[in-house]
Amino acid sequence: MGGRICTHKTIINLNLKQMKNYKSEYGFHTPTRTKRNFKKIAKATKISWSDASWHNDVCDSMEHHIVQGIKFIQVFLPNSNKFDEAKELFNTFSINDSNQNILLNTEDIDEVIDYINTLK
Questions:
Q1: What would the 3-class secondary structure string for 7-37 be?
Q2: pTM of whole model > 0.85?
Q3: Element counts in the chain: helices (H) and strands (E)
Q4: What are the structural domain ranges in the chain?
Q5: pLDDT value for 30
Q6: Nearby residues of 76 by Cβ (< 8 Å), 6 or more positions away
Q7: Does residue 35 contact residue 53 with C-beta atoms inside 8 Å?
Q8: What is the CA radius of gyration of the chain?
Q9: 8 A C-beta contact, residue 42 and residue 49
Q10: Exposed, middle or buried, 23 (CB in 10 Å: 0-12/13-18/19+)?
């Protein structure tokens, strides 16, 4: 497993109109991969998510507000099948809380889903 921490300090929810300005409904960096992961996580967790991707991040992300006392959680999504920090390629998911504390870092999307479902 890679030791990636893909985070950003500015959290911005982008509405669909804003996303279309970037030519993608899902994320900026890897829209096809992001859409697949976003939909799988949203369907399996049965909670509402918003795209929190930002163009100056190295990977796309999604967030959910108010989970068991946590202001929000953010899931940073993989942007590659391999880990190469020097090239900003990350093959892991990272779940962070509203203080940017890492709650989970894994290559397995099912671990992400299981962890989120324990917070509900």
A1: CCCCCCCCCHHHHHHCCCCCCCCCHHHHHHH
A2: no
A3: 3, 5
A4: 16-119
A5: 85
A6: 6, 7, 57, 59, 60, 61, 90, 93, 94, 95, 96
A7: no
A8: 13
A9: yes
A10: exposed
- Residue 68's CB is within 10 A of a number of other CB atoms, namely 8
Quote the pLDDT of residue 91: 95
Whole-angstrom CA distances from 102 to 16, 23, 42 are 28, 30, 20
pLDDT tens, per residue, the chain with 120 residues: 444 444 433 333 434 444 444 555 666 678 889 989 999 999 999 988 988 887 667 889 999 887 566 678 999 999 999 999 899 899 999 999 888 899 999 999 999 999 999 987
Q: Which two tokens stand for residue 43?
A: 């369907």
31 phi and psi angles, rounded to 5 deg: -55, -40
Quick one: pLDDT at residue 58?
Answer: 83
Tokens representing 61 are 């992300």
Token pair 């962070």 is found at 96
CA 45 to the chain's CA centroid: 14
Kindly state the tokens that stand for 110: 């099912």
